[in-house]
Design a protein that fits this description.
single chain, 311 residues, alpha/beta, Uracil-DNA Glycosylase, subunit E, 6-stranded mixed beta sheet, two-stranded antiparallel ribbon, 12 helices, 13% strand, DNA damage, EC 3.2.2.27, UDG_Type-4/5, 4 iron, 4 sulfur cluster binding, uracil DNA N-glycosylase activity
Length: 311
Amino acid sequence: MTAPNTVPASPAPRVNPLQRLWLRELGMERLWLRPAPQPVAVPAPQVVVSKTDSPVVEPAGAAAAPVRDVAAPPPAAAQPQVQTPVARAAGPGPGLRNGPPPKPAPKAAVEEAAPAVIPVAEAVKNANLDELREQVLACTACGLCGGRRHAVFGHGGQPTRWLVVGEAPGEQEDRQGQPFVGRSGQLLDAMLSAVGMSRERDVFIANVIKCRPPGNRNPKPEEIAACSPYLMRQIALLKPERILVLGRFAAQTLLGTDATIGSLRGRVHQMKTDEGREIPVIVSYHPAYLLRSPAEKARAWQDLKLAARLV
């Protein structure tokens, strides 16, 4: 590097009276007659190679820029957003590319696909009664499994003459894992005994829903859809002579109707199974309702006698 040149100080300009007058009119008298600046060091011109490889000479007196290697990349803050012809000729820069996008990297060979969820109806179609029980006890097909103590598969005698279908487990059923326990279960046993039936000998008792809904609310449609294949498979395996349905919700679900229980009871309905069998269905009141409304026990007794007369 050469030593900077020193520019000698110039003498103060001399003006005649007429020039002074003109300078005063133009407002430049003080600026023009200002004392000359002290000598300053002027750096020697530097040669900077631009991206087009053409040498550019910076004028003397311009602000001195730091000297850097022309082969070094510019600082990060000065990186261009668009490639110049020189950059394209040299190849793509950081974050820039030419040609088609790269193909995605193949997945690792060890990565396994997530196991497919088997619908309940598909899972139970070949199950026997013991296998079906195990599937019910381990079922997680809907959200009710998260709040249950026990799933209630059902209980009763085999071969099955009557299948009694209730709505859903209550608090006591959830605690014990058995259908129709407590006061409503005692009333049901007395009703069946009055027509010569026993749950230990020839009656199997089950529910439409196998887990207790919170607060004993009615099950939601998605819960019914998830759980009803279990009941349909129970019917196919048990092959009951007749079905006694207890409660409005159970009757509407099993018969696929929204009719009131008052319009459904007192007559015989027919349920057709997937195997083509037709099973007579009798609708009556739920024992828990009879405990709250004893006057309806007479109608429930008529329903039981109607079921018992079926051949």
